[in-house]
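Example record for the data management plan.
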Amino acid sequence: MKLLFLCTGNSCRSQIAEGWASYLGGDWLRVQSAGIESHGKNPRAIAVLKEAGVDISCQESSKLTDDMLASADYLVSVCGHADENCPVLPTGIRKEHWPLNDPAKAAGSEEELMAVFRECRDDIQQRVADSIGRLEKELLE
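Corresponding structural encoding:
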């Protein structure tokens, strides 16, 4: 199963989702993330995943390509902009949308910003775990 997370800039939410899916998934799951654009990785996203024991520092911030779409079995858009601007999907790709707020747009002190990123990290962890469980169950049926 090839799972693709799509966001606007592939800097934060989709990076966190890719990290969790790679960490929580088994050998049956291949994971990628991409953006409608590529904005580079957000250092706070890297930091909050590291706190949870997941290293995403080696992941790339990638722009979505036709090859990525063609090889995906399941696509999850993690923001409204990516969902609205997602290219037409090839036949057979299943799609799900998670309307996640962008923690990179939060304002406040560093402590307040990190709290927003941790909340996002934990929300995405639960969504990824639920999705992986559901997809794995489908494969076994």
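Summary line stored alongside the record: The chain has one domain: 2-140.
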